[in-house]
Write a structure and sequence with these properties.
It holds the Pfam family Phosphonate-bd. This is 4,5-dihydroxyphthalate decarboxylase. There is one protein chain. About 35% of the residues lie in helices and about 15% in strands. With about 325 residues, it is an alpha/beta fold. It has 2 domains: about 170 residues, D-Maltodextrin-Binding Protein, domain 2, CATH 3.40.190; about 120 residues, D-Maltodextrin-Binding Protein, domain 2 (3-Layer(aba) Sandwich). Strands 9-8-7-10-6-11 form a 6-stranded mixed β-sheet, covered by helices on one side. The protein has a 5-stranded mixed β-sheet with strand order 2-1-3-13-4. Strand 1, helix 1 and strand 2 form a beta-alpha-beta unit. The longest helix is centred in the C-terminal third of the chain and has 22 residues. The chain is globular, with a radius of gyration of 20 Å.
Length: about 325
Amino acid sequence: MSEPLSIVLGQHGQVRALRDGSVRVDGYALDFVDVKRMPDAYRAMARQQPYDICEMAPTSYLMAVAAGAPITALPLPMTRRFRHAGLQRRRDSDIRQPTDLEGRTVGSRTYAVSAAVWTRGILADDYGVDLKRIEWLTEEDENVETFVLPRNARRIPDGETLADLMRRGQLDAAFGGLAGLGADPGDALVELVEDAAARESRWFERTGIYPLHGVIVARNDVLARHPTLATRLFDAFVAAKERYLDAVRAGRADTPEDRRYRQLAKLVGDPLPYGLQENKASLEALIRYAHEQGLIETRPSLDSVFLDPRGIASPLTV
């Protein structure tokens, strides 16, 4: 057995079997590290790489690699969520369609948070929104220290929150939840795109793009020291995911998140696809959006930033 490898993962159903040890990675021991907030782990991995293996926001990963961070991602998306929904406006606002955001202020936890990158891409592609005509207000430092906000974005002062600004009427729209406002806004806000579910379905059928949030990255020195790790890790994640999806399909897993994936499966088939080819359209779209929005200067090829671990035999101990 190799030395324990530190790993940070969110509390996802599809990794539960890895966490409880019922699925193990042959030849490797995983030392799970719990963090208070996953975004803090993303930031640490972008800046100092304190963990051997870590879940990381995909846009932060692309930016970190472009800035020279010695990490490589495996095609193991951790969560999936369509992004026509999630951008909220004040109920009393005169905003009625996405193009009404031009000339307005929109709040996002960071400019590069993946939810915002996906939604901005959709606003531009599907609605013709001129993203440069929106003022983006952010609450936290960007994960990659060297990234400079574009001219139409600014960090709000320390001590202020996006929720404060929204309550005072100083924001026209903002992302909900961890991507922006945090707490449930109650009845004060409504979704900007009212028919989001129908539009998301048509968008997927037309493009094959299924937005991903969170990928698994490893430090390059760890991968170099352990040539079989990538493939064995990939296979372990697949085995853990299949156990989870079996429980979802059978109704044994029935939290709101489980039910969401059960519903998504009706549209997308496998609601948590792993692999480079299985995620090609989605990953290439995210790379394009990151480049178009100024997060990365050049568009890397898919195989230069994602390691496809298939092709090496890697028996699991399950």
